[in-house]
């Protein structure tokens, strides 16, 4: 495994996959090639097998695939910026081997170890309508609970939407059609989309890593300025140095002058204004409007009939 430099702007991408017969392994080789073409650091892994050897023999599985790369552990994910996950479909979802790995990531979930990391997937199914898309969508809850951001390839490569021959792949990611007996091999388009996905994902994550490394550290003063004032739980935009309510705020000298009585011509204070009955006049300039007695007059405080 390559030594990772924490100051490097190169993204670190893990390609972890499980393959029973070799279809996912073939796609993984192209995905790895695509990641490497961007200059990113790629860390290939296999997902550990859980079935007994005698069962795999009866399934005619390719058991040699497990020896290609080290088996991934949950701690390996803490050191990467992105994960490309590959696995075949089982009834429209991931196989139990991958679920077993997911079940080991409880500590990462408890500590938020995968929050903010990027992820994408590739898969394989028996037929053209045998769970390609559902394998992606049924895995999304795992990514959501860990706070991982899924990166689809959409139709950014024209081969994704090709219909002139039987092939895999979708906007979610690369895939291939294996056949019910596993006899079919990935097409040239399948392999090209897989390589493209590795390149696309690595460049996507790389943009984020470079921006994160280049961003200056925020100072305490800057952090304080960036916090908006709130009023009744709602954010209030405010320019530094300006009062929150320009309409009602007055300067201190203006308030002081307003409180002083107006002197008369001979220097004695002028008497305060009084109403006709001799009581002090009300200072409020807005007269209180009488409440209407309409259909909703029982609900005066609601403001419905005002």
Automatic annotation (TrEMBL):
Report a single Gene Ontology molecular function.
NAD(P)H dehydrogenase (quinone) activity
Region (Disordered): which ranges? 218-306
> Which Pfam families does the UniProt entry name for this protein?
FMN_red (PF03358)
> Which cellular components does GO assign to this protein?
membrane
In this protein, which residues make up the domain named Flavodoxin-like?
A: 13-201
- InterPro entries found in the cross-reference section: Flavodoxin/NO_synth (IPR008254), Flavoprotein-like_sf (IPR029039), Flavoprotein_WrbA-like (IPR010089), FMN_Rdtase-like_dom (IPR005025)
Q: Which residues form a coiled coil?
A: none
The UniProt entry, under PROSITE patterns, shows: FLAVODOXIN_LIKE
Which family would the database say this protein is a member of? Answer: Belongs to the WrbA family.
User: Cross-referenced PANTHER family, in alphabetical order?
Assistant: FLAVODOXIN-RELATED PROTEIN WRBA-RELATED (PTHR30546), FLAVOPROTEIN-LIKE PROTEIN YCP4-RELATED (PTHR30546:SF23)
Q: What is this protein called?
A: NAD(P)H:quinone oxidoreductase, type IV
- Please tell me the species this chain comes from: Kwoniella bestiolae CBS 10118
Organism ancestry: Eukaryota, Fungi, Dikarya, Basidiomycota, Agaricomycotina
């Amino acid at each position: 495994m390559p030594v990772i430099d924490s100051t490097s702007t190169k993204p670190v991408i893990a390609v972890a996959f499980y393959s029973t017969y070799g279809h996912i392994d073939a796609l993984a080789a192209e995905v790895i090639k695509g990641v490497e073409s961007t200059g990113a650091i790629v860390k290939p892994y296999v997902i550990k097998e859980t079935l007994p050897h005698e069962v795999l023999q009866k399934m005619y599985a390719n058991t040699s695939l497990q020896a290609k790369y080290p088996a991934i552990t949950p701690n390996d994910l803490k050191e990467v910026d992105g994960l490309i996950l590959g696995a075949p479909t089982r009834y429209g979802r991931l196989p139990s081997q991958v679920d077993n790995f997911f079940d080991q990531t409880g500590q990462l979930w408890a500590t938020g170890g995968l929050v903010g990391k990027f992820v994408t997937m590739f898969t394989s199914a028996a037929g053209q309508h045998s769970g390609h898309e559902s394998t992606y969508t049924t895995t999304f809850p795992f990514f959501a609970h860990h706070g991982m951001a899924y990166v689809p390839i959409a139709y950014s490569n024209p081969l994704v939407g090709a219909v002139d021959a039987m092939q895999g792949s979708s906007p979610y990611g690369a895939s291939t059609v294996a056949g019910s007996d596993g006899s079919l091999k990935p097409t040239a388009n399948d392999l090209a989309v897989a390589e493209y996905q590795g390149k696309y994902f690595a460049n996507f994550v790389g943009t984020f890593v470079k921006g994160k490394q280049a961003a200056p550290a925020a100072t305490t003063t800057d952090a304080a300025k960036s916090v908006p004032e709130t009023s009744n739980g709602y954010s209030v935009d405010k320019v530094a140095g300006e009062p929150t309510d320009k309409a009602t705020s007055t300067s201190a000298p203006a308030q002081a002058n307003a409180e002083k009585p107006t002197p008369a011509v001979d220097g004695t204070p002028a008497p305060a204004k009084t109403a006709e009955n001799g009581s002090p006049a009300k200072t409020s300039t807005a007269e209180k409007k009488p409440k209407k007695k309409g259909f909703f007059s029982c609900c005066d405080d609601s403001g419905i009939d005002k």
